[in-house]
Amino acid sequence: MPSLRGHHLVCLHFFTGEGYDEAFIKNLRNIMARTGHEEITVTSGADDVCASCLHLKEGRCDYTEDADADIREMDNRALDLLNLSETGWAQWDELRDLVRTIFPQWHSLYCSECDWRNACEKNVFFRKCL
Ligand code: SF4
Predict the structure, then answer these.
(1) Contact 40, 92 (CB under 8 A)
(2) How far is the CA of 63 from the centre of ligand 1 (A)?
(3) Whole-number Å distance between alpha carbons of 106 and 81
(4) Ligand 1 center–CA 61 separation, angstroms
(5) What is the best residue among 61, 72, 74 to mutate for testing ligand 1's pocket, by most ligand atoms within 8 Å of CB?
(6) What is the pLDDT of residues 26-73, one digit of tens each?
(7) DSSP code, position 53
(8) Which of 4, 63, 95, 111 counts the highest number of beta carbons within 10 A?
(9) Please, how many CA atoms are within 13 Å of residue 107, restricted to the half-sphere of its CB?
(10) Does residue 123 contact residue 14 with C-beta atoms inside 8 Å?
């Protein structure tokens, strides 16, 4: 079962096939294919997406100097909004419904500053949530 950290439980709903490199995108496509028929394990810290990311260094996110702490905070906020614990399970379809309900708050907290905003704005579900 795919293991996903808090902010990925939200942001992956807006995946449009873009990513850091081919290995990252391939891994993400594989995870997305599994979400349709496998339960999601909620996790904290580096997850199955991070596992193929060039920014994962010694178990920490080095996307920016403060990324690891900032992203953990974002993960915690996502779990709070989704009413999940970091050791729980979730179904992708149920998450999708929840993401729609929390999206106004999520968008105002994070999307305007996010480097992936342009990619997400191409996603139909993202635009429907606005
Ligand atoms: S940028 Fe950081 S949080 Fe995002 S996938 Fe890479 S390691 Fe994980």
Answers:
(1) yes
(2) 7
(3) 8
(4) 6
(5) 61
(6) 999 999 999 999 999 999 999 999 999 999 999 999 999 999 999 999
(7) -
(8) 4
(9) 14
(10) yes
Going by CA atoms, what residue is nearest to atom 2 of ligand 1? 61
Judge if the beta carbon of residue 53 lies within 6 A of ligand 1: yes
Distances (CA, A) of 78 to 17, 22, 37, 87: 22, 27, 22, 14
Which two tokens mark 82?
């989704």
Q: How far does residue 93's CA lie from ligand 1's centre (Å)?
A: 23
What element of type H or E holds 38? none
**Closest residue by Cα to residue 78 from 105, 114, 41, 38:** 105
What span, in angstroms and rounded, lies between the C-alpha atoms of 122 and 100? 16
Q: Distance between CA 116 and CA 113 in Å, rounded?
A: 9
